[in-house]
Every structure is written in structure tokens, then in C-alpha cells.
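Collaborator request, handled under Task 6.
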Amino acid sequence: MGRGPSIEGRKNAEDAKRAKVFTKFIREITLAVRSGGGDPASNPRLRLAIDKALHANMTKDTIERAIKRGTGEGGAATEEIRYEGYGPGGVAILVDCMTDNPTRTVAEVRHAFTKHGGNLGTSGSVAFQFTETGEIIFDIRSQPELEEKILELALDAGADDVQTEDGFTDVLTTPANFEAVKNKLESAGLKAIEADVVMRPSNRVAMEGEAAETLKELLDWLEELDDVQDVHHNADLPA
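C-alpha cells returned to the collaborator:
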């Protein structure tokens, strides 16, 4: 009879995954500092990056080192690049990268698309299908009465829309209003399960069967690339 992975093996895999996530947060904090300065009070992008890092249990010492790295010398060649392409079934995909070697990164991203029946497009070929949107999501399945409170507070704070479906309430804002709305909801004791500025698709493509499996493999492959920070798509995948 075969045996599953040992406890040590699972722990090593979890540690490796956590290290990869932390690396992405460190890069995001560093570039946020370079683009807007090292003071979170005057740099919304840095505040958001720090919030996400703390939520993932990154230590404050590690965050401080990333901020110092951003304000200091070295590593200035790192740049942000967005690649656009289509996956199986014509699904639109945006791949946000941070890299010190664009030649290496584009080759890795192109290989991932090609291997899974997709293709890398030119700049602007996909991005028009997405809008940068602040998104704050609440799980209200055990407290459906919170929907009205979230709606009232969010709209009062400047949210654009509030949508509830299947026990989840999704608060949508402009990027500029995201932080004010998030703070208003948090100060009222409401705890979001997700809060981020995302690329929200204008429409979604329903995927199922083998095409959905291939797309999932492509998305996982892209997420695992060292230079990839975020992957956005417009697929409606089965649970």
C-alpha cells in the first residue's frame, strides 16, 4: 500500500509555499516604496501591501527590512510588467510580474500559455476587458442580517456598489475610495475575508470539463512562476 507524504514532507512543502508568498509581498512592498515613498501614511499602495503581508502573518521586522530595501540602494533594476493573453476557451488573462530580467520572464510566461493551448497577446489586447476595482468581501452566511448594515456603511463611505450572492457580500469601490470604505467597515467591527484592489472583468466566460481543467493548470503554473505577482482572469470556473 502506498503511503502519503510524511508530516515532515508536508511541512517542508508548506514552508516552501509560504516563503514564495512572502517573497511576493517583499517585492510588492519594495516597489511600493520606490513608487510612493517609505511612509505608509502618505503611500496608499504601501499601506495595502503591508496590510496583506500582516494578514499573511509576515513579521513586522521582515516588513521593515523590505521598506528599508525600497528606500536604499540596490535592486533598482526590478520593474513591473503586465503580460496579456488568452487561455483555453478564449479566457482573458492578465499576468502582473516584477522582474529584474524581462527576457527571462516573458519566455517563462509565453511557455506557460503555449503549453496549455493559450497564446500571449500584445499590450492592450486583453486589459480593456478589466477595470481596476477595490473589492471587499464578507462571509455573511451565518449572519445574513449583516447585509443591510454593510450596505448602509459602505455606500455612506463612498462605495460604488454592494452585491450579495450565496451568502457573500461584495463591496465594490474605486481604487481611490477603497481605503476609506475598508476603514469605515472595519471600524464598525466588520471583518472582511478578502480586501484588495483587483482587476475585475467586465464579463465572465463559463468554463467546464476538460477546458476548465486545462485552464486551472495554466493559472496554477503562472502563479508558481517566481516573477509573477498576480494573475487575473475572466473565467467562471466550477467550484
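The cover message to the collaborator said: "The two ends are 31 Å apart (CA to CA). Residues 1-13 have pLDDT under 50 and may be disordered. Please let us know whether this matches your experimental observations."
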